[in-house]
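Q: Joint fold for the lines below.
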Amino acid sequence: MKRLQSYLAGSWHEGQGDPIVLHNPATESPVAELRKATALGEALRYARETGGPALRALGFPQRGALLSRLAKLVHTHREELLDLAMENGGNTRGDAKFDVDGGTAVLAAYAELASKLGDAPWLLEGDVEPIMRGSKIRAQHVLCPRVGVAIHVNAFNFPAWGMLGKLAVALACGMPVLSKPATSTAVLAARIAEILVAEGELPAGAFSLLLGPAGDLLDHVGPQDVVAFTGSADTGARIRGHAQVVAHGVRVNVEADSLNAVVLGPDVGPGSELFDLAIRDLVTELTQKAGQKCTATRRILVPQERLDDVRQVLRERLADVATKTGDPQQKEVRMGPLSTAQQLHDAQAGLRALAGSATRIAGDPARRSFVGVPEGKGWFLEPILFEATAAAALDPAAAFHRIEVFAPVATLLPYDGSVAAAARIVAAGEGSLVTTVYSDDRVFVGEAVTALAPLLGRLVIADEKTANASLSPGCVFPVVNHGGPGRAGGGGELGGRAGMQLYLQRTTIQGGGSQLARLLGTGVG
Amino acid sequence: MKRLQSYLAGSWHEGQGDPIVLHNPATESPVAELRKATALGEALRYARETGGPALRALGFPQRGALLSRLAKLVHTHREELLDLAMENGGNTRGDAKFDVDGGTAVLAAYAELASKLGDAPWLLEGDVEPIMRGSKIRAQHVLCPRVGVAIHVNAFNFPAWGMLGKLAVALACGMPVLSKPATSTAVLAARIAEILVAEGELPAGAFSLLLGPAGDLLDHVGPQDVVAFTGSADTGARIRGHAQVVAHGVRVNVEADSLNAVVLGPDVGPGSELFDLAIRDLVTELTQKAGQKCTATRRILVPQERLDDVRQVLRERLADVATKTGDPQQKEVRMGPLSTAQQLHDAQAGLRALAGSATRIAGDPARRSFVGVPEGKGWFLEPILFEATAAAALDPAAAFHRIEVFAPVATLLPYDGSVAAAARIVAAGEGSLVTTVYSDDRVFVGEAVTALAPLLGRLVIADEKTANASLSPGCVFPVVNHGGPGRAGGGGELGGRAGMQLYLQRTTIQGGGSQLARLLGTGVG
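A: Joint structure:
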């Protein structure tokens, strides 16, 4: 069996102790094993002291060129990587592309962005200003690379995009990266790491890979380090509250649970292109990656008078996907398994919780037979749809507002078609990554933007005019903000230049105008 | 005795339980009392539900007009407020102006800034961009007011500036404020609150005042709330790790301990204007507010060959201040007491710790007789200067790199005149609010900016040319970033528009180009 290795302090390590076995979630066959890594303090120090100076010496455009090289490199190995995503991730080929090509796209986007940021060791933010009216002394904010390590703790669902997306932004900013993939799906991330290390011409210490448990990693963080975490709210809370993280004021970004919503506007009826788009997007957002996507739609707000239409068509479409759920190696399969037995177990528990607040109207959680695998094998769940009453939809204590079932599962929530009610329902989720409004009613959309935007990291507006160009709202592009307030973790990643703030320190440089002009290349101000 | 009241949920409350007595720290006479407030969850809900919508309905320019009115109002009551600062804060009249006028200046600065931000309910950030090359779908970041409460927990040393500075930024952003001053010096903050409430024409719920212990306040925070805290690292850590804060992803800004440094460049010798400026600033930064200033200088890096000069002149100047330390009501007094008996006790403990790493070369911690007060009365400490060896200066474990003695106390640290050594010494403080470099050597300054900036929230460059216009580096102007990485808490406040990010949610609005142009007033992109 394949033995995966960590790459720490400039060399590969098998780790020690009992092997942890990774599986194909469709067949439950073992595909690789790994062992717990050690000497993590030394690994962080090496990254900080060797990788940091080397990356900072490059400047933004040269780091952009590095990212461009990595993007091409990953693309060169694309077929092999897609196969690994299918084998260890339970991905369909479409799911695998979403992950791998998504990662390549972030590398390419930040390569281009960094190429335009100039050769200074910092970015200028805002304008040079007098510190007070009439003063000869000026102030200019600069954003400079933090002189620590970017520690990336990624989720199991996007081993490629998660790793490469975070890596792209940190490297663009000049911070060395220690990347810790989720253990269950680490085969893909480990292979990408091998490729980057072998062929990426990365400066020594710029990249490290930690496989398996994080061990005592956080006991060794320092005041200039950054931790970017994607995963469960519980683990996010443990990281935020970790004694060493708190003691050293380590910067932490968390992207956690999110009960993303879709709001169907009262003007959108069956037969319209926008209605069809909404249904198509909903099916994608419920079933892509078997619903194990942080941006997947969990709550579907439908005007009461459209409920029958939406219910009917969604049940048909989801039933179709259900018949094509199984081993992704089979050509006709459109949806694969969940990633692990534990994920399936948690999803089943979540379904029982949802059943306390809503009625299941599609999908059978007990189904045991799926395409291309023996009965009872594989960690499968067919698409499940719940429906709540209008009264329950407005209850912030309802399970569908509190529990993210990380699986192909969503709940229909009828509402009265007003923005006020929609906002109340969306807000009951306590902060989400994304919500989409489907409407051509300009007043409705205008009010929805004001009411919903503060609750979200991203608000997608879909209208008839752009329906043909629209992309499913769960797709996170490098230029959009990825993160959300409250339950979603309160963080922000990507979003073009905005996302670079995570790895940069804002510092005001204060001095005489001509002094600043010479030092920073600003105007005299 | 004056009974201070909390202003919660739109009315004044005496609180309940045993009175907490506030003192004049120069004479130890009681000056006021207050009692613990209750029903804090209700107070937060009132602010969130009544104050929030009212403030958001105003828009940026109207909120700017409100701040302008508040600035004038505070200025109208200036003399009364200065007297209170002297009485309850132990401030000299100069210290009191620094606090009160500083607060007025932040109100005025954000009034002006907000007046220029347009009438939209959000700020645009960056440009509208295609979500991917060739797509008709665009993305635009907006920053919109968070729909929660801004909870401000302030330190005892700046009851006016701390409260008004935080208030100005939050109100400019449209967030209602619940302000909790430090108990020991709450007389000034309570009086300002009275003035704001009585004459400020604030919308109902826009401002609340919580006096005394925070009680169960944090048990009631929600996902859209923001906590901005200034104070000790320990309390900062407790806030960050609070279960409800963590569970709801509440945004937290911490400004905590900071071992601010001054670096005298190797080119700066006695007799130069720059040398004189450095000495003048050092005396100010050691003794203003009795050294109880988060931006006060704690570590003074001096080239080995200048050590005798600096030591001699500083000892003379500090000895002069020592003879003028006493009750600020006395005309000749230049430095008042520490704020509380506990502060004096903690400072004495800190002095003992510093004595393990450096030698005391000026000041007597045991002195008991001060100007205008009976022997043994008042919480006084005369200016104290330590000096370390060059070897100790480079030791990150040395007490002066780890312990902030919040009093008129600093340590001379000889270094070899190189930027590398200076950066190593500054970095040993693990992140600070501000460091100042005094030099006319362009190479030295240039290297110093690159090496020091990431370790700081603000870097001040002082040169001969602007020496006459320079302002002491501990002065925080509204346009400069106030906060620092690591030990300094990892936060950022003020800094003009950058500081508003704390109270705004970044949200990407994604949709068709003409749709975004209509909704957001952007170009079509």
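Q: Anything notable?
A: Chain B touches chain A through 88 residues (CB under 8 Å). The first strand of chain B starts at residue 2 and ends at 3.
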